[in-house]
Design goal:
Layout: H1 8-17, E1 40-42, H2 62-70, E2 75-78, H3 95-110, E3 114-117, H4 136-152, E4 160-163, H5 173-191, E5 202-205, H6 211-217, E6 230-236, H7 240-243, H8 277-290, E7 298-303, H9 319-341, E8 344-348, H10 366-372, E9 398-399, E10 404-410, E11 420-426, E12 430-437, E13 446-452, E14 459-467, E15 473-479, E16 488-494, E17 505-512, E18 517-526
Helix pairs in contact: 4-5, 8-9, 9-10
Length: about 525
């Protein structure tokens, strides 16, 4: 499914729309629940196997947790399976399993990490059995398990968060009402357990943990005696063809390459055809408009585009394997930036051997790790890996009017890759800008612009700029005497660390001292 690109006027309409349900309104102080910026990591396929800890390929070690903290993550999500480790009659959780979970939490807390423990799939006792009405047996389990968990961790401070579920199978309003009732039991059980549980942050999973379904159905929250301590969780694995699909199907093929600058001209059938940058931003904007702009925190509790190998992936050999890996790091970096710019916390899914060695903590994939913790993506070999690279299109850049006649993708000049954005002038004198709306640039980032000005033009000055969410503009102006003509010039703009995001836009303003017909070029705009 394709989503429209959001212009500033679209953003204002979304901001004005709000949420009809007053129960969702929370104070802006709700954003203090996790570090800013937050870099999250999942201890996946480890504590949650119904068959026992470590039976899916890896057991937790202190060396692993120490390495996770040392390499830039500050938030850890620990998927758990309480029902599979509890007495089926009394619902008492196995003390040995509780002790195992507690040990991992303690390792994390010792490294000053924030921790989220949940009830994961857990053989589906909750998430696969949500009907149109509340099941008393399920409700009893919900109360029992979370009472025991909350009492065990009652002395832990706000570094520990509780998450009620994982991906609850809910697609209708009546089942959403049932899920909300179970969440009410969860909230009551935790708040009644004493200690620091009265102020602990609690995480409520959207229906299916899906962005669209959550946007549609999650319109009320359970009542909480502690205001401003509930948050929402969704998951992101889109496009499916790139992130999760493990075989071609009649309806479509696996995608190996994602992102404007990472498409393959030799394997065009393996390029992503939907779900790329603008679509990701549009999905995150939905959660911003409904929740985070209202002071309701949102975590992306799972997200990952795992790089592929040659096995089982037709045509993915040699340099294409490297391009797929580079593309997956770009997906991760772009998601991190989009999440942060929309006020959300991403927590990347990881399993034994993907990014770390579970036993020693050694890094297995340094490039993937960097892209998840604020570092760069791997650029495509010989291509342009910038976020605004213009390799496939104008990427929704537009002009503000005369003296700019318009913008087009062009191969006349290029900083990197094969194309740039040509800014064409119509012969008039004056000032106008080439801009893009709602870029996912987090606060504190440095935006790098590359500009080419021809010799003999009537350009008198240029200004690269960004406009934050509140309309505050910050730019870097260069008179023509400070630029080199017939060459690429680099200009940077630092987005203030306290800038309101998502940005309204960014761009380059051109001023001409006399009428002139010609073109300037923009390329490789990155952050």
């Amino acid at each position: 499914m394709k989503y429209p690109y959001l212009r500033p006027q679209d953003l204002r309409q979304l901001f004005a729309a709000g949420i009809a349900t007053a129960a969702l309104l929370m104070p802006s102080g709700a954003f203090a629940q996790l570090p800013k910026p937050a870099y999250g990591w999942n201890l996946g396929n480890t504590m949650e196997p119904p068959s026992g800890v470590g039976t899916w390929g890896g057991t937790p070690t202190q060396a692993l947790i120490n390495s996770v903290a040392a390499h830039g993550f500050n938030t850890v999500r620990i998927p758990c399976a309480w029902d599979c480790h509890a007495d089926k009659t009394t619902h008492l959780i196995d003390p040995a399993y509780m002790s195992q979970v507690k040990q991992v939490v303690d390792w994390c807390i010792a490294k000053n990490l924030y921790v989220v423990i949940n009830d994961h799939w857990d053989d589906g006792w909750l998430e696969n059995n949500i009907g149109a009405t509340v099941n008393p047996a399920i409700d009893t389990k919900m109360d029992s398990y979370w009472t025991q968990i909350a009492k065990t961790f009652s002395g832990y401070n706000d570094h520990l968060l509780f998450a009620a579920a994982n991906e609850p199978n809910v697609k209708t309003a009546d089942k959403m009402a049932t899920l909300t009732a179970y969440y009410q039991t969860f909230v009551k059980a935790v708040r009644s357990a004493g200690g620091n549980n009265g102020s602990r942050w609690l995480v409520l999973q959207g229906p299916d943990a899906d962005f669209d379904t959550t946007d549609k159905l999650m319109n009320t929250f359970p009542t909480d005696p502690t205001p401003g301590r509930l948050m929402v969780e969704v998951h992101y694995y889109s496009p499916y063809t790139f992130c999760l699909m493990n075989g071609d199907a009649s309806w479509g093929k696996m995608a190996y390459f994602w992102g404007q600058g990472y498409h393959s001209s030799a394997l065009p059938s393996r390029n992503a055809t939907f779900g790329e940058e603008a679509d990701m931003d549009a999905e995150f904007q939905k959660m911003y408009a409904k929740f985070t702009s209202k002071g309701i925190p949102v975590i992306v509790g799972e997200c990952r585009a795992e790089p592929r190998g040659s096995a089982g992936n037709p045509g993915l050999t040699g340099d294409y394997v490297a391009l797929n890996h580079a593309s997956s790091t770009y997906w991760s970096k772009y998601l991190l930036d989009s999440a942060h710019s929309h006020g959300m916390t991403p927590i990347y899914w990881d399993t034994p051997g993907q990014t770390f060695n579970w036993t020693t903590g050694a890094v297995v994939d340094a490039a993937a790790l960097a892209s998840m913790t604020g570092g760069p993506a791997v650029p495509p070999a010989g291509g342009d890996g910038a976020i605004e690279c213009f390799e496939l299109s104008t990427q929704n850049w537009a002009s503000s009017g005369s003296p700019i006649a318009g913008v087009v993708k062009s191969d006349a000049q290029k900083y990197a890759g094969a194309y740039s954005l040509a800014v064409n002038f119509d012969g008039a004198a004056g000032s106008a800008a080439a801009t893009v709306a709602a870029p996912s640039v987090p606060a504190g980032q440095t935006i790098t612009f590359h500009l080419w000005i021809p010799k003999g033009s009537k350009i008198t000055a240029v200004q690269a700029f960004e406009v934050d969410h509140n309309g505050v503009r910050k730019g870097s102006r260069r008179p023509i005497g400070k630029l080199t003509t017939d060459a690429w010039n680099t200009i940077t703009v630092i987005v203030p660390s306290k800038a309101a995001t998502p940005l309204q836009g960014l761009g380059v303003q051109f001023s001409t001292g006399a009428g002139w017909t010609g073109a300037c070029y923009i390329d490789s705009v990155n952050w």
